Structures are given as structure tokens and as C-alpha cells.
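Lecture 7, part 2: worked example. A protein chain together with iron/sulfur cluster.
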Amino acid sequence: MNDSNTPMIDPFGRMVSYLRVSVTDRCDFRCVYCMAENMTFLPRKDLLSLEELDRLCTAFIDKGVKKLRLTGGEPLVRKNIMQLIEGLSRHLDSGKLEELTLTTNGSQLPKYAQQLADCGVKRVNVSLDTLDPDKFHEITRWGHLQQVYDGLAAAKTAGLQVKINAVALKDVNEHEIEPMLKWAHGEGYDLTLIETMPLGEIDGDRVDQYLPLSTVRERLSENYTLTDIPYKTGGPARYVEIKETGGRLGFITPMTHNFCESCNRVRVTCTGTLFMCLGQEDAADLREPLRASESNEALSQAIDDAILRKPKGHDFIIDRDKIAPSVGRHMSMTGG
Ligand code: SAM
Ligand code: SF4
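Predicted complex, written out as C-alpha cells:
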């Protein structure tokens, strides 16, 4: 009989304590590096219900997950999302879960920031790649910068800590990184830069978008003093402190620096597919064992079996000879 409280330890001795759950594949934006403009979304019947998502997250929490991040698509466009978040907050109250958080594009924060804070959410990651309204609209296709500013203001009022995530895009925002750094630190936000990853077919060419963060760091070092610091948020970012602003800057470098050796994460999609690595295709279906019985025994066994297949690492490559993306699914499926 499977013990549904067994901790999840992979073949490389890494303990899985961080779960990212994509609660929807839908979004109110269409960012150029993330989605094609006319995306086909999943039929609703394939989605886990909010009750199923709660059961699934709870099974992972019973198996040692301490940090839970909801993502998407845009997590806050999932219908009745607060019902799920309110329910999951019981694990914060019991002390089993240390952090419940989410990654959002910010557009729905005016509506939800206070409710999130009331549920024990302390921090949110808000994705924002530019402070130029026209460029913002170009990147997100459907988004307006003011929506995000309003969301950030609502987060501040609700007392939520904010980290800004920006994807570094060659020719698009590469010359805005310094102004963004000053702005974010001036507002009291950490800023994390992310390299574009080759996930899913998009309309443009990723080779044209790819900007190694080693280059960004070198450029910033010309005007700023960057000091490596051991600060960790449970994710893959490596942080530096910027002397001149007094703020923190994180680098997520899946392309130039493999961070897999300390990976403590797995991801579940809104259809209940478990991905043991963002950069690999191997996956396990958890929806079937979840729906097969009301007990969590089969589900827990399926999770244990999958964790034993967690690969050592990913191997993203972006080059001109390789036409297809390294991984066929879009980021909106696993949520980053
Ligand atoms: N909609 C929410 C948002 O934008 O924050 C959550 C989901 S979104 C897929 C999560 C993060 O993935 C965002 O910060 C986004 O910028 C990033 N992202 C999307 N596609 C990416 C790609 N191909 N490479 C790197 N980051 C990507
Ligand atoms: Fe939507 Fe986030 Fe993807 Fe942009 S990055 S299209 S906001 S899911």
C-alpha cells in the first residue's frame, strides 16, 4: 500500500518541496514569446475542476511540498479562482505549507489583491517587460500598461510584496533594463531577469529574441556595483545586490547557466499532467488516478513513480539550425 505521506526524493537525492500549478492555459494577454496570437485552448472538460486542483495540491502538500505557486496562463482569469486559493490557505493556517503565491501578469490584481492578502498570500511575482506603453502593447498584443500599474498599486495597498519578472529580449527591451531596474528598486520591488526559453511554436524567431543575461550583467556592471548575495526565494534565480539602488536583482539563466543541480521543483498543468522538468518532454498523467478513486493512494503512487523519473537537468538550445523548439509545449501550459 502506498503511504501518501512519503517525501518526494528523486534519483539524484533532490527533495521536491516546490510545486507550481498552472490553473488555466487561458490568458487575457498574448505575449509574443509565450503564445501565438490565435492560440487554441483546451476544451473545458479536460481541465481539472477547482475541487480536483485542491485535492491534487493537497496530495503534494501531504508529500512534503512547502511552497506552492499558482500560475498559468493567467491564473487570475480562471473562473472562481479565489475559491481555490481560499481553500488552499487552510494549509498555511495549519503550518504544513510555508508559502502560497502566484505569478501573474497583474491585470486582475485591482480586483483580487486584497482577497489574496486576506488568504495569507504575502508575495506575488508580476511579469512586466517594459515601461513603454506602446512597447508593452506590442509585446503583450492585448495588454495595456496601465492595467499593470493599477494592479501594482492594488498590490501595494493590500500589503503584498512584489517581484517584477522581466524576460530579457534582444532589441526589444535590452536598452530598458537600466531604467526598469531604477524604477523597480525605487518602488521597493525586487527585479528578476529571465532568458527566453525555447518552449512552443510562436510567430517570431527565438534566435532574434534571445539575449544572454551574461551580456546584460556585463553592461550593468559598467554603471553599477553588483555584489553576489546568497538570497534565495526557493526558485532558480541567483541574486545580486545593487549598491547604487540598494535593491536586489535576480538572474534566471536557463540558457547560459544550468541551475538544475539544486532543482526542488515540479510542475502540474491544468489538465493534471505532471512535468518533472520544465525543459524535458517526459510527463506523468495524474488526472486518471485522481479521477479513478476518492482515495489518494493511486495518485500518491503515480506521483512517487514520476519523481523517480525526474531527469538530472534540461538542455535548451536556441540556434539557427534547429528549427523546432526544444520543447513543443508553450510556457502557458506549465506556467514557467
Ligand atoms: N500569465 C502569468 C504571467 O505572465 O506572469 C503567469 C504565466 S507566464 C507563462 C509565467 C512567466 O513565464 C512570465 O514571467 C513570462 O514572462 C514567462 N515566459 C513566458 N514564455 C517564456 C519563454 N518562452 N521564455 C522565458 N520566459 C517565458
Ligand atoms: Fe499570458 Fe503570461 Fe503568457 Fe503573457 S506570459 S501570454 S501574460 S501567460
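The first helix runs from residue 50 to 62. Confidence is low (pLDDT under 50) at residues 318-324. Keep this in mind for problem set question 3.
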